[in-house]
Design brief:
The protein has 366 residues and is α/β, with parallel strands linked by helices. The relative contact order is 0.13. It is elongated, with a radius of gyration of 23 Å. The strands form two sheets. The protein has a six-stranded mixed β-sheet with strand order 2-1-3-6-4-5, sandwiched between helices. The protein has a five-stranded antiparallel β-sheet with strand order 8-9-7-10-11. α6 crosses α9. The chain has two domains: 233 residues, Aminopeptidase (3-Layer(aba) Sandwich), CATH 3.40.630; 81 residues, Sporulation related repeat (Alpha-Beta Plaits, 2-Layer Sandwich). The chain binds zinc ion. The site of zinc ion has 6 residues, from loops.
């Protein structure tokens, strides 16, 4: 009896709350994932071998915990999640799963470098095709951990013995490449300006861990444990704090930039018309763009159907949907974003001609 009375009220509430919920989704809590590389049976690089007590896995965990501490005290509005807080082995795909499940805004994997030549400095990677042998060597070293995982052949479309297979890894992250490069650039600048470290800049290589995430993702090499001076610096708490402070400085600046851009975006969409059918205009949602030709099967696109592939110059563009109803395409865009294509955007065409969506929305639909 009581239930009977309550039921309609809850339905009404749902209807009222639904649009509110959508609005609030935009200013959801900014969530950053900090991923300390390696752990457990996977030590990472062992450095100069002058010390036996601390390897890459221990040093990057210490830095990650410092990052967490600083974010909690200086960025109370930001949620921070560590993929591991202890010395345990975690598979690469699990790290991505943690980030995707949290619907995070940023993924930062922290590692320490090693080289057979004399090298110093920090470098930050985004996923991509390696430009040279050195970048490939770094990626290969960090990817080799999957050999320690059980059944890795089943879980990854990557063959650690064939560097060429890295190329097929890049497609999904291309959606987020611009933002990943931006974050990588900001954090390298913070290393040099705030941390007074030597920066080796932003690089691209095929890291398996970066391929697992649906958000802007970077991998930081905080310095060379193969170099005695840097190894000593990174082993010390003060060194770890300096590195962590630079990373947090980068996160703050990146977040600020994002907030500025989203204000601009929402302004440009103001004063739109209610009638949203545009004759002779075809709207589509662009969900990816890549140099790889991928079959337009739904299993390649997280279950999304009606995917269209169009070759433009050297790139393949992947579109979802085709309609002259802006409201309908907007719904499809939301669906694509929910499926993980967070930067999916609407494009408009008249015949072959690409149109500006912003201009269309300001004009009166015919
Ligand atoms: Zn590593």
């Amino acid at each position: 009896m009581y239930l009977f009375k309550l039921l309609p009220i809850s339905i009404v509430l749902l209807i009222v709350l639904a649009p509110l919920h959508k609005l609030q989704a935009q200013d959801k809590t900014f969530t950053v994932i900090i991923d300390p590389g390696h752990g457990g049976k996977d030590t990472g690089t062992t450095g100069t071998k002058r010390y036996k007590d601390k390897n890459e896995k221990d040093i990057v965990l210490a830095v990650a915990l410092e990052v967490e501490k600083i974010i909690k005290s200086e960025m109370p509005q930001t949620k921070v999640i560590l993929t591991r807080k202890k010395d345990i082995f975690i598979e690469l795909k699990k790290r991505g799963e943690i980030a995707n499940k949290a619907n995070a805004d940023l993924f930062i994997s922290i590692h320490a470098n090693a080289a057979t030549y004399k090298a110093t400095g920090t470098e930050t990677y985004v996923l991509g095709v390696h430009r040279n042998k050195t970048n490939l060597a770094v990626a290969k070293r960090e990817n080799d951990v999957i050999l320690l995982e059980e059944d890795y052949e089943k879980h990854y479309s990557y063959d650690p013995h064939s560097p060429a297979s890295i190329i097929s890894l890049t497609l999904m992250q291309e959606d987020y490449l611009d933002q990943s490069i931006r974050m990588a650039t900001i954090v390298e600048k913070s290393f040099s300006e705030v941390g007074k470290r030597r920066t080796r800049g932003v690089k691209q290589a095929g890291f398996v861990v970066l391929h697992q995430t649906y958000m802007p993702s970077i991998l930081i090499e905080i310095g060379f444990l193969s170099n005695e001076i840097e190894e000593d610096f990174l082993r010390k708490k003060t060194g770890q704090q300096k590195i962590a402070a630079s990373i947090v400085d980068g996160i703050k600046k990146y977040k600020k930039e994002l907030e500025k851009n989203s204000i601009k975006d929402s302004n440009s969409h103001a004063s739109v018309n209610n009638n949203r059918i545009f004759k002779n205009v075809t709207f589509k949602v662009q969900i990816a763009s890549s140099s790889n030709r991928v079959a337009t099967k739904s299993y390649n696109f997280r279950g999304l159907q009606n995917i269209e592939r169009v070759k433009v110059d050297k790139f393949y563009k992947y579109y979802l949907g085709r309609t002259s109803d802006y409201n309908l395409i907007k719904q499809l865009q939301v669906k694509a974003v929910e499926k993980g294509y967070k930067s999916a955007f609407i494009v408009a065409f008249r015949g072959e001609e690409r149109l500006s969506v912003a201009k269309l929305l300001k004009s009166t639909p015919q």
